[in-house]
Amino acid sequence: MDSREWDRRYAGSELVWTAEPNRFVVAEVQDLAPGRALDIAAGEGRNSVWLASRGWQVTAVDFSAAGLGKGRRLAEARGVTIDWVHADVRDYQPEAGFFQLVLVAYLQLAESELDGVLRRTATGLAPGGVLLVVGHDVTNLTEGTGGPPDPAVLYTPESITRSLGGLTVLRAERVRRPVVTADGPREAVDTLVRAIRD
């Protein structure tokens, strides 16, 4: 997908996604001391806004101007300040060693493109900094619900950890989250990887 498609998707006045942060982001980050955070493919900013509300200095990067506009409005409504960067994450290069947290949540790219994004953004981690990656797992196609139907953009724990040379992987597994559907409650299957720069 390109930025114009996402701009169309985000064009309405209502949020496409919820304003609340992703459950795995909350669980993995809530005990970290706030510092500088980089939210890659921030979309409408729900995770960025939550981080900022907890005292993080957040840089949110996305290629959709419409998504970032919604993020700005959400941040204003919640009374937080975020550095919004309009850029394609496939080209974005963070300042080296600058961030205590790098978040990549539901960025669904072909593995070769995602590999480049992960390798570049990991350079932004300061010593002791945490990289958190969450995205739709390939097993979601057969065991879960929702998410992209194209297996080429779905994760496995192994496909993510292969891109994290130089980091220590603390957690790499499949996780499940409840999803409310028209047919009742279901589950989605995600990959979750947490790594640290020593």
CATH class: Alpha Beta
Low-confidence stretches: none
Helix content: 25-40%
What is the averaged pLDDT score?
93
CATH architectural arrangement: 3-Layer(aba) Sandwich
Task: State the major sheet.
Answer: 7 strands, mixed
Number of separate strands:
7
What letter string, H or E per element, gives the SSE order? HHEHEHEEHEHHEE
Main β-sheet, spatial strand arrangement: 3-2-1-4-5-7-6
Strand content: 25-35%
CATH topology: Rossmann fold
Query: Cα distance, first to last residue?
Result: 35 Å
Number of helices: 7
Structure write-up:
The structure is a single chain. This protein is an alpha/beta fold and 198 residues long. It has a single domain (3-11, 18-196), classed as Rossmann fold, CATH 3.40.50. The protein has seven helices and seven strands, in the order ααβαβαββαβααββ. The protein has helices at residues 3-9, 23-29, 46-53, 65-78, 111-122, 140-143, 157-161; strands at residues 36-40, 57-62, 83-86, 99-105, 125-136, 168-181, 184-196. A seven-stranded mixed sheet has the order 3-2-1-4-5-7-6, sandwiched between helices. A hairpin with a 2-residue loop joins strand 6 (168-181) and strand 7. The radius of gyration is 16 Å and the shape is globular. The model has no long low-confidence stretch (mean pLDDT 93).
Care to give the gist of this entry?
The protein has 198 residues and is an alpha/beta fold. The chain has seven helices and seven strands.
